[in-house]
Design goal:
The complex is a heterodimer. Chain A is α/β, with parallel strands linked by helices. In chain A, helix 10 crosses helix 11. The longest helix of chain A is centred in the C-terminal third of the chain and has 27 residues. Chain A is globular and about 60 Å long. The model of chain A has no long low-confidence stretch (mean pLDDT about 95). By secondary structure, chain B is of the alpha+beta class. Chain B has a two-stranded antiparallel sheet with strand order 1-2. The N terminus of chain B is likely disordered. The chains are: A alpha/beta, B alpha+beta.
């Protein structure tokens, strides 16, 4: 079997266009790899092999006629199972499901227009409402580096499949850390774009005020390519921004020397000492690349953490009110407990948090980013936990346990800022990651830094083929 | 002028541990819903009525209340900082304007 795992989606697309490999061969390899990955990690909800292989044959036929469909023509991808696809019913990672979709989600439609194939729908936390990869309805996801460890969530299957080398990239979403946590836990990368940068039309809502569609991959050039495909206004999502979309690929080589890297030592100091060490290690590598370390200070972190909960809990509970009242028994215990919690928050408190959001973002831009271009923070507060350690189900400790996991991620959703996840140098140990945070719509700047970082810390595959 | 003022007894006070003492008009019941009855609202502290329509065990109900009360303290503090004219759309405006230092 050819190991295509080292390819980026971009280089695989080029190889398919150049007929060095057919889309059919690439798709067959991806399907086999995904099957093996699923056995190990439980990453797949629905394998769609026949459909993908038919798409691959069609892509090869188009390429033979000199008519490649787009920049990802014939490239096999797979995505978190929360996006509408015409005629299909997304699982949402849940027992409770909607009706078959009448149209593709905008993100899916834009991938299709770029020529990409979808070989599977991938695992997620129930209703994307869990940060660890636990799913009490469909079964927990397992980390491909160490199957006793969490994958992170909620975009668990995408991160596991990318880390394993089954697919080069896939879609996820992030409401409180759901792209960053699985990317960090599985040793891969992700872009959580600025809120509104990518249309959410046809994506399962969790908390629309916070929901952000993004990408998990191994190569920064794939994040750049794919955000370029996904970003831009959409009449189906009024929140989708009309801000110009840069040529992210062209900007990958932007100079990073002299960029100011802000470190908020008070916030970083709340992480486990080993995690603090990881932040220092990555900051050191970025320093060697020419970034200049400075101090920065976020607004009170606990206040931000409370405000984002005041936004998220009622927002999510409102979406689930009908299900909770009529089919409450069909929820898994953890999501049910979290959905219930939103009903205990007053409308006034919720709106206070929503109204304060502009003020806190303004304060962050004026103060935190006054002396910094990019800020660095941990993602996980602790070294990679085991599945058993965080198996709290819906018990009374659920808020504390999940709150510790998202401690460094969900406040950033309140601020809506773009965030790039980078893995730490693993050196044979367990994976983990850090996040780089930038000003609104500065994704190109993050990609330039990430591209430079990957020259020092190249992408890894959890289970490369032997021989 | 013969203005009829409400009797002081018409305004009840509820005590919410997280928020202090607030004047409150008597609660209106909503026929056709399974919310707590008006009789209940006369006798029970208002806090006990929260999300009464959700069937959940008392342990989880207590945990949810405690969590909401903790968050409410932050909301209370933040509410004192927000300008009176703050709007829910401020966030999008700042996001768009905040692209450059």
């Amino acid at each position: 079997m050819t190991d295509l795992a080292a390819h980026s989606a971009r280089s695989l697309a080029q190889a398919i266009r150049d007929k060095e490999i057919s889309s059919l061969e690439a798709t067959q390899v991806a399907i086999k790899r995904l099957e093996a990955c699923h056995e190990l990690t439980h990453c797949t909800i629905a394998l769609e092999a026949d459909e993908a292989l038919a798409g691959a044959r069609a892509a090869d036929a188009d390429i033979a006629k000199g008519n490649a469909k787009g920049p990802l023509a014939g490239v096999p991808l797979a995505h978190k199972d929360m996006f509408d696809r015409a005629g299909k019913t997304a699982s949402w990672g849940a027992k409770l499901r909607g009706k078959p979709a009448t149209a593709d989600a905008t993100a899916i439609a834009r991938y299709k227009a770029s020529g990409a194939l979808q070989i599977a729908a991938l695992h997620l936390a129930e209703f994307a409402y869990g940060p660890t990869g636990h799913n009490y309805v469909l079964g927990h996801a397992r980390n491909p580096w160490d199957t006793t460890r969490i994958t992170g969530g909620s975009s668990a299957g995408t991160a596991a499949a990318v880390a394993y080398g089954a697919i080069p990239a896939g879609l996820g979403s992030d409401t409180g850390g759901s792209l960053r946590l699985p990317a960090a836990c599985c040793g891969v990368i992700s872009i959580k774009p600025t809120w509104g940068r990518v249309s959410r039309a046809g994506a399962m809502p969790l908390s629309p005020a916070l929901d952000t569609v993004g990408v998990i991959a191994r190569h920064v050039e794939d994040l750049a390519l794919m955000l370029g495909i996904l970003a831009g206004p959409d009449p189906r999502d009024p929140a989708a921004s009309g801000m110009p979309v840069p040529d992210y690929i062209a900007r990958l080589g932007d100079p990073v020397k002299g960029l100011r890297l802000g470190v908020d030592e008070a916030v970083v100091g709340e992480a486990h000492p080993q995690v603090q060490g990881m932040v220092e290690q990555v900051a050191g590598i970025l320093g060697k690349l020419g970034l200049r370390r400075t101090s920065c200070r976020f607004p009170d972190w606990q206040t931000l953490d409370h405000l984002v909960q005041l936004v998220q809990f009622p927002d999510a509970s409102a979406a689930h009110t009908n299900f909770l009242r009529t089919r409450g028994d069909e929820y898994g215990p953890q999501v049910r407990a979290r959905v219930e919690t939103g009903h205990f928050i007053s409308a006034v408190d919720h709106l206070t948090a929503v109204r304060a959001r502009g003020m806190f973002l303004e304060r962050t831009l004026k103060e935190t980013f006054r002396d910094a271009d990019i800020a660095i923070l941990p993602i996980l507060a602790d070294p990679l936990p085991t599945i058993a350690e965080l198996d709290v189900s819906g018990g009374p400790q659920v808020q504390a346990a999940t709150g510790r996991v998202v401690k460094f991620t969900r406040p950033i959703n309140y601020l809506g800022l773009p965030t790039l996840t980078l893995p730490i140098p693993r050196n044979g140990g367990l994976p983990n990651g850090i996040q780089l945070i930038a000003r609104p719509y500065a994704e190109a700047q993050l990609f330039a830094v990430g591209q430079a970082y990957q020259r020092e810390v190249p992408p890894e595959i959890a289970r490369p083929l032997k021989g | 002028l013969n203005i009829k003022r409400p009797s002081p007894l018409a305004v009840r006070h509820i005590v919410c541990p997280a928020r202090g003492v607030y004047p409150r008009v008597p609660q209106i019941s909503h026929p056709g819903t399974d919310m707590a009855s008006s009789k209940d609202s006369e006798t029970a502290p208002a806090g006990d009525d929260i999300a009464a329509y959700i069937d959940m065990p008392s342990e989880r109900r207590a945990a949810a209340k405690a969590h909401a009360a903790m968050l409410a303290r932050t909301a209370d503090r933040v509410a004192r900082e927000i300008p009176f004219g703050a709007d829910v759309d401020d966030f999008r405006r700042v996001l768009t304007q905040g692209t450059k230092p």
